[in-house]
């Protein structure tokens, strides 16, 4: 349910919690570890788990019901905190054992569309919208593993995630404030993408972000909202939304 | 004044449940409970938009031991589900909060709110009806005037008591985001309604206008990192109110300073303990409820794991901190996964501000005596409570050997949460909402 191909049971989470509480002074015994201590490992594992959960929760919402702003804000703040944590950790903390819980590209709303995500779609090269193969922070990993097996996400990727998630999280509530502003060009401009999202509660816009085949792999440096969103939005879908909005 | 040990344990009274079947529907889940200012009435709101008001029986001299029990007084549909066509979203009819107005005449008034609309309801009794009309007969049919030979004055005749609830005011279209709290001012003329980003001030008489007094919405929504979680007027100072945030801070504002209370006059926040920092630190610091003490000197806040009492004169740290269920600290990851970490528990003061109460999981609720520093865990469940039996204190076992009657953390039922409780303003009577059941407990009589 949580990750495509990743089987996680309740007990696994509890194991993480127990590990996190224990002292990490027996790192040498653990066959998986060379450098980081055991508690550090479990902290990283927990971070990965929380990251995956966070993204999954942000994506999952009921059609027709409004998102709780408080919940969205708390989730996104957690995401930012993880991002900061990853940034401050820098190179070398990415464990090869940590399963990619980033398989959160769940499509609950468009069953007809194939769900693509880095971990699942092996051999499918054009789905990696935000998983750049050449990450400056973990070059050794990329050399060893195929790009569709994401390891702990490089910080730049996470920032791209958070930008997208930011946009999705709050901006659906923009409707009453901005609905009468310039709708025509709004979807094509960076800052006014909000009004598109405003009516987008019914539209699985978040899904289109990830599953969009038009999006090629982009360098992670382009994390500004404008270029990201304009790249990711399917223009055909935009026209469709526009039609309905202005009833043209 | 009674000391806390006499409150323990509480005498159980048969619960005045609304719908007490084991298989309840979602609509029956109680979403708020509130005593009125005299304690004579108890209102509950549920997810289906209904309000049920209970009234306390008059104490009878013939049975002095049998304290007044609460019986259903009035039931009405306060809010209906709506559809916001602009956003293509449903607006839930769930009653988020009920607040009573102090009684000023024979009728009772309360404010009830869902996510978007506040309504003022008048609950009044009718026990007489006029009879003996001249122009219509007993069935109500109009008489032919030519058949009337004499005139009489209609008289009021007694009838079976009827309790009517009528919506007197509807305060709508003022909130873009979800209303989380309402609070009646001590001036009895105004009230505030609060959503995630704004606090609006209303006059009870005027429904087409409200004043925005707090607005924390940033110009760029992507910069939003904090929301308002609750707000309340000071119980005596009609110009002062407080609001809490998702980051664990409370701001006290004075409405005399400016029309828009952007600048707080006091800011309460406890610095974070770096040793307990985790990925969940912010979520568990989010304040779910804020309540002034009855005497107006203290503020109480509830976050996920603790209840804190703040002295209004001391902003940098709370006066008292009570651990509600610290054994959950090691389970935060699981609670995050199943969304329980987002649960919003409320907290209440007793009438004398000496005891505070809040809910927990497994239908447990906790009471803390501020003077003796004693605390107790009680359970609101049918199985463990027999009529007239004294409630037994419960204990959660944290690792190690589990004693008989203790319950281990892993056996707790997280679907049974007590989010809403209320305390009678003068007496030791509490009402506890456990999903779809309402429990009313009184302290023992002697």
From TrEMBL, chain B:
Organism, scientific name: Echeneis naucrates
A GO term from the CC aspect: protein phosphatase type 2A complex
InterPro entries noted in UniProt: PP2A_PR55, PP2A_PR55_CS, WD40/YVTN_repeat-like_dom_sf, WD40_repeat_dom_sf, WD40_rpt
Keyword set includes Lipid metabolism: no
Gene that this sequence comes from: LOC115049658
The protein's assembly and partners: PP2A consists of a common heterodimeric core enzyme, composed of a 36 kDa catalytic subunit (subunit C) and a 65 kDa constant regulatory subunit (PR65 or subunit A), that associates with a variety of regulatory subunits.
Family: Belongs to the phosphatase 2A regulatory subunit B family.
Alphabetically ordered keywords of this record: Repeat, WD repeat
A molecular function GO annotation: protein phosphatase regulator activity
Name used for this protein in its record: Serine/threonine-protein phosphatase 2A 55 kDa regulatory subunit B
